[in-house]
Amino acid sequence: MKVGWDATHGEFLINDHYYFSKLKSIAESEGIQIETVGSFSRLEKYDIIVFNYPEIRFKIREASRIRGWLRKGKTVVFASYYNNLDNVTFIINNVLKRLDSELRINNDVIIDEEFNKSDSMYPLALWRNEKVLMPCCSSVSGGEAVIVGSDSSKSTKGFDAIFASHEDVNGGEVVVIGTCVFWDNYSIDEFNNRDLALALLSGKV
Question: Is the pTM of this model over 0.90?
Answer without folding.
Answer: yes
